[in-house]
Amino acid sequence: MALDAAAADLDAAAARLQANLTAVSLPIQPIPSGSEEVSLLANRFFRNSAGTFSPAAAHAVGELIETAAALRAQAAAYRNVDFEHGKALGS
């Protein structure tokens, strides 16, 4: 039961993260605060960071879903083993 509850929590977290990512799906486009070198370099850094955020966040959602599926599979395996042991002891 605890593994199933943990899997449900992970699925809920993945759904919340995906919903938030979808809600703010507009690309992040920072504008340089000035035209001097420091502002332009800082802007380039922020644009690069913004460009890598969406793929990383999408990967995180996938990882949460895969982990939840693995927990469910482990829970099912534990239930099957427990059932088989119970049958063996009951015979």
Structure description:
This protein is mainly alpha-helical. The chain has one domain: Helix Hairpins. It is 84% helix and 0% strand. Helix 1 packs antiparallel against helix 2. The model has no long low-confidence stretch (mean pLDDT 90).
List SSEs in N-to-C order: HH
Give the class from helix and strand content and strand pairing.
mainly alpha
- Rg, rounded, reads 23 Å
CATH class: Mainly Alpha
Question: Which architecture would the CATH scheme give at its second level?
Answer: Orthogonal Bundle
Number of helices: 2
**What value does the average pLDDT take?**
90
Low-confidence stretches: none
Oligomer: single chain
Q: Let me know the number of strands.
A: 0
**Named CATH topology:** Helix Hairpins
Described by the principal axes of the CA atoms, the overall outline is rod-shaped
Q: Main β-sheet, in a few words?
A: none
Give the amount of beta strand, in percent: under 5%
How far the N terminus sits from the C terminus, by CA atoms, comes to 26 Å
